[in-house]
């Protein structure tokens, strides 16, 4: 049985869980606190980053992008028209560009700030950086999410899905990161109905059910979080 080392509210981990579910793989989940850097995890992935997939043969696949590439290598052909990284060169380039955007830029400007300040620091020891949230970081993330939301709305106004006619890794990466921000009530959905309707389509998929069931201890989600129709 494959094993996924992840944390419920790590945005990259959520992306890995979505793409595994979409490719009909159900690994055992091992919860890792991102700030703990446990020795057993470091022995497999010295970077200590999440997520980490260990497949049935013991092959360790670190990182959200690494897991996406691995799944396309081992399952892509069999998925045919459900492939999450399309076969066409131009489409593959566009999916990878948007993966860089959401796993990199969006994470650095929005989801990492909010997950760290509003969730992780609640549980981290003081000596590891735990404590009250940095409100200036939260305000910056709340400002940044607005232009990312507009960009999603712009893309969807021109296409059926973010990268083109079919759902791809790009949609799942964007939705995974937004889902953490949405749990916290920090996505201004009223500012872009097109982006809102796209997100409703993605979160209505069966692969999203497990994510919508996750809860931060002592912190309820936004009222609309698990409402498929908002």
TrEMBL record:
GO biological process: glutathione metabolic process
Keywords in alphabetical order: Transferase
Domain of life: Bacteria
Transmembrane annotation, as ranges: none
InterPro entries from the UniProt entry: Glutathione-S-Trfase_C-like, Glutathione-S-Trfase_C_sf, Glutathione_S-Trfase, Glutathione_S-Trfase_N, GST_C, Thioredoxin-like_sf
Gene3D superfamilies: 1.20.1050.10, Glutaredoxin
Family matches, as Pfam families: GST_C, GST_N_3
MF (Gene Ontology): glutathione transferase activity
GST N-terminal domain mapped to chain residues: 1-79
SUPFAM superfamilies: GST C-terminal domain-like, Thioredoxin-like
Domain annotation GST C-terminal: ranges: 88-225
Subunit details: Homodimer.
Record PANTHER family: GLUTATHIONE S TRANSFERASE D10, ISOFORM A-RELATED (PTHR43969:SF9)
Protein name, per record: Glutathione S-transferase
Native species: Microvirga vignae
